Amino acid sequence: MYYCIVKSSISTVSVRSSHSNRPNLYDAVVPALESRRSVRSFRQKRSRSQPLHTSSIHVEEYSDGTESTNRVPSMLISSDDSIEQFSLSSSSKETTDSGVTFSGHDSRLIMAKAICANVALLADDLPFSTGDFINVLDSTSHAALWFGMCADRTGWFLASHVTIIDPSAPSEWQNNPGFSHEMRQLRKRVLHELLITEKDYVTLLHNVVVGFVEQCRRHKELFSAALVESIFGNIEKLAVLHAKLLSELESAVDRKNPENSALADVFLRNSTNFEIYSDYCNNRMISCAILGKMLEDTRYVHFFEACRLLRGMPRLNLESFLLSPVQRMCRYPIQLRELLKATPVLHPDRKDLEKALVAMKGIASRVDRRVNRLESIQKLIKWQQNVIGFRGPNLIENNCRLLHFGEVSGKCFAKSALQWSKTVHLVLFDQSMVVCKKIVKKNECVFKERFSLSAARFADVTDGKDGPHAFQITTQNRSYIFNCKDADAKSEWLEKLRTRPSPNPPTVNEMRFALLSLKHR
């Protein structure tokens, strides 16, 4: 991957209009704006994208030496997401209000941390909160008013609202004996692995999008729009997310001393964006089922192989490429855990790294739970389809999980009158109970009846006239007594009834994913 050079040329523009022309709103808050007015009276009119300084803003060129097919093309990364490292050049040394001096030939990115919030009173002001990090792009136009970037916005702010982070100044944590040479080298290696694997992943996503998704869309005689979506899911969104993530990781790296880099905040800022992995992972079952059938047709086999060869990708099938996002999502917590082990307690990235590890583990856990939930819904649908003579609404309308099943001896009473007494196959779902007759020779179940557990009551029955190892379930119109084969089986039934989850029926999307994946199997 390599960066292109971007230079900005600045021209002198007319002087900002007098403050006397401002709306009366500002006159009402004169005390709060006094310091800012004194600064802005010296400022010239400028746009937010063109700070008033004569230094050029460069994007450093970098090449990893890989072949052109493995580079991350710019078409996937917008200007806001490009991997940039800004540098400011000046002919003399500048001393900031915080007392930190930067030499004119120093091309490092000037970073600052907000010591108080900056409220955007004008359209070209930069809003930020206490503790936010700001890239200072112009600190020369005026000593008290700087231009910078925070998150995805640029604007002007008071220099007194921030403190400069000088990477060259030795800090307490850097001189700490706990950050030994061995630990520095270990942290450097872990960071290197994190960045290299992220670059490889971004390259892979780009190759899949350009080499497979776009090619499939071009050949409409082979692929409909719905088929392309079913095969690839939202992988294009993943490509955009990780191009942005890689850009931010690259920008956060301390090139001179990589072990001093603080990358955890990048994961914290993007943590909510990783939720899109749920949809991708849920679609995997559909994708696998469709690809399994398609690869029985030699036309598709040759087509996918041609796509792979054109992108110069490894000798793997499409199924393996589409599995990579699932594997990558599981790898982040592992890499962050290794990075945390190589980070001393006083390192400025330590606390954020702990938070980032918790966040990424939480995301991976939520994605895993959603995938397991979808698999449970599929099992429920398949079970219903295999029951002979099933009646009533579909189970997935208010159930999402099969909890327990087994053979029991049952009795049913309606208004104290015995309705039936026989051995049945009892199946417990999270919100319903289904009674079936098991045909052992054919391994089939015949539907008998079902009842909701939403208003049902259950109780342990003491051994006596109702037989041993019994429990009772009472609904609005009927009462059931079930006898288990032993005390352990009875305890398991009662435990499952007591701990069944609260109502959480499948969503429309979950039903759609589950039904589609079963349809294509």
UniProtKB/TrEMBL annotation:
A Pfam entry, by short name: RhoGEF
CDD domains: RhoGEF
Region (Disordered): 40-71
One Gene Ontology CC term in the entry: cytosol
Residues in SH3 domain copies: 107-167
Protein's UniProt keywords contain Magnesium: no
Domain PH: residue ranges: 401-502
InterPro entries for this protein: DBL_dom_sf, DH_dom, PH-like_dom_sf, PH_domain, RhoGEF_domain, SH3-like_dom_sf, SH3_domain, SOS1_NGEF_PH
Domain of life: Eukaryota
Keyword Nucleotide-binding: no
Domain DH: 186-370
Record's keyword terms, sorted: SH3 domain
UniProt cross-references to PROSITE patterns, sorted A to Z: DH_2, PH_DOMAIN, SH3
SUPFAM superfamilies referenced in this protein's UniProt entry, alphabetically: DBL homology domain (DH-domain) (SSF48065), PH domain-like (SSF50729), SH3-domain (SSF50044)
One function term, GO molecular function aspect: guanyl-nucleotide exchange factor activity
Protein name according to UniProt: DH domain-containing protein
